[in-house]
Write a structure and sequence with these properties.
Blueprint lengths: L1 H15 L5 H20 L5 H8 L3 H29 L1 H21 L3 H27 L5 H31 L5 H20 L13 H22 L3 H24 L13 H31 L4 H21 L9 H17 L14 H24 L6 H27 L6 H30 L4 H6 L1
Helix pairs in contact: 2-6, 2-7, 2-8, 4-5, 4-6, 4-9, 4-15, 5-6, 5-8, 6-15, 7-12, 7-14, 9-10, 9-15, 11-12, 11-13, 11-14, 11-15, 11-16, 12-14, 13-14, 13-16, 14-15, 15-16
Main location: membrane
Keywords: Membrane, Transmembrane, Transmembrane helix
InterPro entries: MFS, MFS_dom, MFS_trans_sf
């Protein structure tokens, strides 16, 4: 009965509110993802210079690189749940505003703690945009082809943003203007907020469900504790890491209990009985722990073991991220030919092969040795990103699309945070010689490739638990 009332409210709202054109809606949401990913990957392009400009210690530099992913991971699920219950446009516009504020703080920072705070705020704001963007586009289209195009362009925007971030910061760093990219990001965030407010209709608020404040507090506290533990572990601060881990276990266990017993849980437990939903999030975990973790470490490896500058390393990484952006557009017609589950499985399998092609480096190896693996992994990652965007919406009820996007991206970024920590620890060595660094890279390339291939096997197995109707729908 409640779902019917919600559906009726949504239809009534849609009938009285002017709709944005599909093209305009897609441009604004894709631009928001592109800008968020520019901010996310930017410090990879000038991390050493940024550390010098802010006087950052090695520990502070770790937080500079990790802080935005922390903000994203702890906010995505809460943002998605709140948006579905209180209006997606409201959360999207607020997210763009928060992102703008965070970018300004980064631009004016003169010490590491202020810059890290700005990056955390950027992550929270970006979560509001990422969790709601695809749901807002869904309000202005019903055609399956347009939904597939939305997922493809969303994946393209993600790839282009990741590719452009290190290049943008690296170029401005050459001119000694490291803060300029953050002013540009602030301007872009403000423009997106204004455009979205005048463009999108507000989605119907669910007046029959109270916000799950207890769940939100427990989840946020648990994820913050877990991510702090990971960052501290990367700095070999074992006591702080163990304390953070213990707090994370307790608070996340409390979150699970609150979701199982609460009257209005943030995450509907029945979703986890859908095989295709579980499969989509398993694919997100494999993506984060595999290709994103290795590529996040790649710039460091290229600079230390292969002697490239930060800008050169960012340009090499573009072979992966840029090709992923291209393939995400090219596969937009896949929805009419293959299921979302098949798209995820194939994307993971080929990505895994690409990662394995990156191993086997010897002391005489040049950057050219990495090109085939980067291109194969990049092209497949584009297929994968578009599939994740597609399934995040397709495997949840229409009124919960923001939650679906939030859960999938939380899984991806949380797994990426864990994965890059493991990769950094395994690849690091007290010896600075090239042979040791190459051996560490070879080991983590095999590890991440194997994890990705395991994800490719698990996706169809998990999806098989869905009913035939659910499998056809997704």
């Amino acid at each position: 009965m409640v779902n019917r009332l919600n559906s009726d409210a949504h239809v009534a709202l849609a009938a009285t509110t002017p709709r944005a054109s599909f093209g305009a809606a897609l441009v604004v949401t894709s631009l928001s993802t592109f800008v968020a990913m520019l901010a996310y990957s930017g410090p990879l392009g000038n991390a050493p210079a940024l550390g010098r400009a802010l006087g950052a210690s090695p520990g502070a530099q770790t937080w500079i690189l990790s802080s935005m992913s922390v903000g994203l991971a702890v906010s995505l699920l809460t943002a998605g749940s709140f948006a579905d219950r209180n209006g997606r446009r409201r959360v999207f516009v607020a997210g763009a505003g928060v992102f703008t504020a965070g970018s300004v703080i980064c631009a004016v920072a003169t010490v590491p703690v202020v810059f890290v705070a700005g990056r955390l705020i950027e992550g929270v704001g970006a979560a509001g945009m990422i969790a709601t963007g695809l749901g807002l586009v869904a309000t202005v289209t019903k055609a399956p082809a347009q939904r597939s195009r939305s997922a493809a362009w969303w994946g393209t925007a993600m790839g282009l943003g990741i590719a452009g971030g290190p290049l943008l910061t690296g170029i401005f760093d050459l001119a000694g203007a490291w803060s300029t990219p953050y002013w540009l990001l602030a301007a872009a965030g403000a423009g997106i907020a204004v455009a979205a407010r005048g463009l999108f209709p507000e989605t119907a608020a669910d007046r029959y469900r109270r916000p799950d404040l207890v769940g939100a507090v427990l989840l946020t506290a648990g994820l913050v504790a877990l991510l702090v533990a990971l960052v501290e572990a990367r700095q070999s601060h074992l006591t702080a890491a163990l304390v953070g881990t213990a707090l994370a276990v307790c608070t996340l266990a409390g979150f699970v209990v609150s979701q199982l017993r609460g009257r209005f849980p943030m995450v509907d437990p029945p979703l986890f009985r859908r095989g295709d939903f579980v499969a989509a999030n398993a694919a997100a975990v494999a993506t984060g722990a595999g290709v994103i973790a290795l590529m996040s470490f790649a710039c460091t490896f290229l600079a230390t073991a292969m002697g490239l500058t930060s800008l050169q390393a960012g340009a090499v990484l573009t072979l992966w991220s840029g090709s992923s952006a291209v393939s995400a557009v090219l596969v937009r017609g896949l929805a009419a030919r293959v299921t979302g589950t098949a798209q995820l499985a194939v994307g993971l399998a080929v990505t895994g092969i690409g990662l394995l092609l990156l191993t086997g480096l010897e002391e005489t190896a040049t950057v050219g040795r990495l090109v085939p693996g980067l291109l194969v992994a990049g092209l497949a990652t584009g297929v994968l990103n578009a599939g994740l965007a597609r399934q995040a919406v397709a495997t949840v009820p229409p009124e919960r699309t923001a939650l679906g996007t939030g859960i999938t991206n939380t899984a991806r970024y949380l797994a990426a945070s864990i994965g890059v920590t493991v990769v950094s620890v395994l690849a690091a060595s007290p010896k600075a010689d090239t042979a040791t660094q190459l051996a560490g890279w070879n080991h983590v390339a095999v590890l991440t490739g194997a994890l990705t291939l395991a994800g490719a096997v698990s996706v169809p197995t998990l999806a098989a638990r869905s009913s035939p109707r659910e499998r056809n729908a997704s």
